[in-house]
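WARN retry 2 of 3 for item q-0093 after timeout on previous attempt; input resubmitted unchanged.
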Amino acid sequence: MSSRNAQLAKIHIAKKALALDDDAYRNILWTIARVRSARDLDDAGRRRVLDHFRACGWRPAPRAKRRHHAGAPHNIDSEERGPMLRKIEAYLAEAKRPWAYADGMARRMFHVDRIALCSPAQLHNIIAALEKDARRHNRYRGRA
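OK item q-0093 returned
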């Protein structure tokens, strides 16, 4: 989501949270940024409107933390390995297997104690093995 779209979404969330009717909302937009629609706000105007809503008592809800299955590796949200670990998590969930299964694969295939310690190339090989297993058990939903 672009910054503009995220800011516009926050403005509309704040409008709802502050229980502003349409007339009051448009009057605020006019007073703060001289526009009648949030669509017409520039970046500075969007920031001023959000600052005004915060001054009125609106607080954005904290961002929900992504939940992972029990036993997920500590680095599942890393930039380098995260996407591959999340794909492994999806394969494990589809097969109803715990993370210990992936740790066992890492031990058998690469003599590495935990999947969190595998290199990206090793993770790629584990994904291939899980994909092969999914195909064998008719659970694969990827490209044909």
